[in-house]
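Support reply, case 0932

Customer input (verbatim):
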Amino acid sequence: MANIHYFTLTIAILALASSLACASDPGPLQDFCVALDKSKAGFVNGNFCKDPMLVKADDFFYSGLRNAGNTSNPVGSLVTPAFVAELPGLNTLGISVVRIDFAPNGLNAPHSHPRASEVLTCLEGTLYAGFISTNPEHRLFAKILHEGDVFVFPRGLIHFQLNLGKTKARAMAALSSQNPGIITIANTLFGSNPPLPTNILAKAFQVDKKELQRGDSSYCPSSSSRVLGGLNQASFHPHA
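Our regenerated output:
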C-alpha cells in the first residue's frame, strides 16, 4: 500500500512539474530556431524552424526601434513591437521587446498580455505606471517612474502607463514571450467584431444604454477617455 501511495505521489509531482514547464514559451532543442513565414509552411502553434544552414545574422537583427513612433493619435502614444513577426530569431527564445513613445499626457491605455510578464524601463520623461490585481481585491499597484526606473507587470494583469510630463516620454519593455498577445480593454469591449450587444455593456458598466448609444456605433479610441473615467492630467494626482 505504501508503494502505491509513493507511486501516486511521484506521478502527481511529475505532472505538476510538467505543467509548470509548459507554462511559458517552449524552449529550443537546438542553438536557434529562426521562424519561417507561416504562409509558406502551414499553421503550427508557433513557427517552423528555418534550415540552420540558411540562417543569417539579419535573422537576429531588427532596426525598427530606432525611430520614435508617431504619437499623433487620440491616446497620444504608440507601441512599436519587436515580436517574432518582426524579428524571426526570437522564435523559441521566450523573449521580445517593445518601444513605447508618449506625447505630453499620452496614455498607453489599460491592457494585458495573456502570454507574458513585462519589465518596463523609463528612458525619458516621467511616467505613472501600474497594474491591477485580479478579483475580488482589484488592488492598484502603481509608481511614478523617472529616467532609469524599472517597473514589473505580472503576466495577464491589466496595466498602463501615463506620461505625466509636459514633454514627450519614452520607454522600453521586455516581455517573456516571443508573441505575448495584447488585449486593450476599451478596444476589446467597444470594438469587438461583431459588436458586443449594448445591453451587456450597459449592465457591465452600470450605465444607461443611451449613454453608450450617444457616440458612433463603432468604437473610436477618442471615446476611451469617457469609458475609462476621463483620465487626464488636469484632474489626476498620483502618489509616488
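We compared this against your earlier run and they match. Two observations from our side: The chain is about 20% helix and 25% strand. Strands lie at 77-82, 96-102, 107-112, 118-124, 127-132, 140-145, 150-153, 158-163, 169-175, 183-184. Please reopen the case if you see a mismatch on your end.
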